Amino acid sequence: MADAPPSALPEAPPELRRRARDRLSWALLIGWLAQVAVRVLLTSGRPRPRLYPDEAGYLLAARWLLGGPGADLSGSRFYQGGYALLVAPAQALGEDPTSMYRLVIVINAVFGALAFPLGHLLLRRCGIARRHALLLSWCAALVPAATLWGTMALADTVLPVVLLGWLLAVDRLVCRGGVAAGCVASLTAAFAEAAHARGRVVLAVHVLVLAGCLSRRERRRPALVALAVTVVAASAALFLNDRLYRSLYPGGSLDTAGDLLKRLTSLDGHGWALSGAVGQLWAMFAGTWLLAAVGTVAVVSRLPRRSGASPEDRVMAVVLLTVTSGIAYASSAALPDEHRVGNFAYGRYLACVALVYTLVGIAVLVRRGRVVPAVSAAIALFAVSAVWVAVHGGERLRTYEYMPIDFPEIGLLSLDWTELHLTRASVVAVVLLAALSGAARLGVPALAAALLTVGLVALLLLTMLITRTGHHVPALAGAPTGGVAVADPLYGNADDDSLVRTRVALYAWWTEIERFDPRHGPPRPGVCTAVVAWDHRSPPASSWPRGPRGWRVATARIGPLGWAVWTDPSCPRQPPE
């Protein structure tokens, strides 16, 4: 972060300062409302989740938190309760799964739009003039890394805002002290830990910062208060997630901690983690048009004493880089080899810090002090990361499964969501950085216009091509008292089974789904809907030879997976989703 330039002007009269504060408050409020409107419009017309089982996992957790029926999510990833608690009001206000989901998206927009006022504070911290900071932070808040995941019911929606708010609060604590700053930093760190496993890295770094503050007499009191708040808030987060885990994961969740431990205790594991972390950096750089790469160079340049940075600036640079490397390394180490191209270059995990680096990169372009060296170093860093991904991935980049949702911005850069075009995407990202750098030389309005154009075009295309679609769910029967049962086994594969079970559980809003073995006949009396596997090449009626006579059957597909929904015609039916 750059030091703000000292002011040589006399202090303005109190009346002028009050008017300036009022104008700033109105500008921030109007800008925030405009951000909310843009984010809601981007997701208009999406009645159902797109990403299973992730979205369903959070939505089912939110339903359980309000006392609704739970679900057995054993064997899937553990979807923590922090984000679910945030969107729980949608469960209370929504009349059905469709209206509930739309309310969740509105809640996402309300919280995600906080990227604008918080981004304004960060740019001011970097020495950008107020009017320029307002304009640039509004445009930067629409970078896909900070916005795209907000179009889905995911913890990734709020993590960019949480991380940005935490960094600003920690910066205030380190630079000026104050109990309020310490408490805000502690609460945001604890919420990050409650919302996602990446938050554990944030919480660990936060505790280290507080330990450092305890060594300074003038920071000791606020640090002690902040530490107490951290203990209480983190304990509450632990209690919430423990209750959630016991209720929704009776058979245990996917053992990512075991994979993490194995990787961190072997040389091969460290090699995998390091290579995956570099791939995440490449994806973050490319997905922010290399602005995050410029920001990374700027942050790293503050580390040496000879850089002229203040001790507080160097501390914050260490904090940001430690959180970034910790998230990238730990998430890569915990990720099993799923034979996906995303194992080698995945941008979602670092999306929570991408906005921070993007804003710092924008500040570098605006201040024009050493733009050419910074941009050149950013391109060199990006090229090294691209070569690393190409060498480490090798032939697997072409033979492993390519999932478009793993590469939203990368697919846009290469105009192809069927395979990874590493070189093409990299070249286009460099061209975009050159264009943004050229716009910055024309002035802040030109840079803001370029940022806004690129951001909106990217978001419109991505929401139309990737996130707008959602799989159809056939009508269920039984509300509000009838049971819903899913075959066990369904496909014999835990991941495939989870894709269907979470869909059915989400739309069976009145009851917790049961399991039954279709080979031994129908489920218990009182069950109105039964879900079984279906070979989509065969007639639907053949999917359940032992099914009850007179029941109706409807079918659905998720890629190669087919499933059949059998319903008792005497039971009330839900409309199809």
UniProtKB/TrEMBL annotation:
Q: Where in the cell is it found?
A: Cell membrane
The cellular component terms of Gene Ontology attached to this UniProt record, alphabetical and capped at eight, are: plasma membrane
Q: Does the keyword Transcription apply?
A: no
Q: Indicate how the chain sits in the lipid bilayer.
A: Multi-pass membrane protein
A GO term, aspect molecular function: pentosyltransferase activity
What keywords would UniProt list here?
Cell membrane, Glycosyltransferase, Membrane, Transferase, Transmembrane, Transmembrane helix
Which segments cross the bilayer? 24-42, 103-123, 135-155, 222-240, 281-303, 315-334, 346-366, 371-391, 422-440, 447-466
Domain of life where this protein originates: Bacteria
- GO biological process annotations for this chain's record? lipopolysaccharide biosynthetic process
Q: Which PANTHER family does the entry link to?
A: MANNOSYLTRANSFERASE YKCB-RELATED, MEMBRANE PROTEIN
Q: What is the name of this protein?
A: Uncharacterized protein
Which species is the source of this protein? Actinomadura namibiensis
